[in-house]
Amino acid sequence: MIDARWARVTDLGTISGGGSGSGRTWTRPSRARTRTAGSIGAVVCGLDLTAPLPDDVVATVRAALLQWRVVFLRDQHVTPGQQVAFGRAFGDLTPAHPLQGGLDADHPEVLVLDSTDYRLGIGDRGDGTSYNNRWHTDVTFSAQPPMASILAAKQIPERGGDTLWADLVGAYATLSPGVRHLLDPLVAVHDATRTFDRFQDDGRQQVAAMNPVRHPVVRVHPETGERGLFVNPVFTSHIEGLSRLESERILGLLYDHITAPERVVRWRWRPGDVAMWDNRATSHYAAADYDGQRVMHRITVAGDRPVGPDPTP
Ligand SMILES: O=C(O)CCC(=O)C(=O)O
Hints:
This protein is α+β, with helices and mostly antiparallel strands. The protein has helices at 4-10, 55-68, 80-88, 168-173, 177-183, 193-196, 200-208, 244-258; strands at 42-43, 70-73, 111-114, 148-155, 163-167, 187-190, 213-216, 218-220, 227-229, 236-239, 264-267, 274-278, 282-286, 295-301. It binds 2-oxoglutaric acid.
């Protein structure tokens, strides 16, 4: 029996034509059976992101992303410009980060995540790690968080430095009906100052201007219609209309449930790998379990305002 995940991936092999950047072609996908987790994650084989992708290939990658929530591509070694071009195939890109500049003047969309900068960079937790080393969904403190993030591995430590992604749709679906019913109408507040307050000396105006935003606790995915949990411990401050204790306990329950290993995929990076995740349906965690330097480049595809099951909370 063919694993559906691999059928999906090898669908790419039926597309005719081809790009040949760097002398590699994407027309013939590899049959390598690298397995990812049970409910989330797929490896897309046979693509070459150093060349432009035809629309039907982009559509297939998008379909894989919607189904598996995070897709991995090995051995890409993209330049910043090629990463940007790949991202633009899925929509407009955002600036690198609301509080941090991009790689350089030519690549304002590329966020550099260099472990040796964590002590100085935004999100520093004061111990050499950053908010990336906790479970989070990207930029949920903005009114329109990115729809997807694309991360390219530049320098990877010999051991450690994996990234984990959790399936927020699977998490919602596996709650009992009574809890889902309780959560469906709720609204949570997301607040950047929880994480970025330390940087007010450098960017006081920026942070002060960043008012908390309200998002539904349960987000209806704009493309699939699936419901998923849309809270994370880095940016969500509380659930509106509940006592502090109720909010803390319910969020704690949800965070435990979201990160259950059954709905988490863990990726062991190699330099040149690219991961793309659906930021509307996942949260992620960069494991801070390594010595030495780890460098990643991230871009984010612009998203829309999250909508809950009741669209007018
Ligand atoms: O570096 C990683 O593996 C993940 C980065 C991350 O957490 C982020 O881009 O938000």
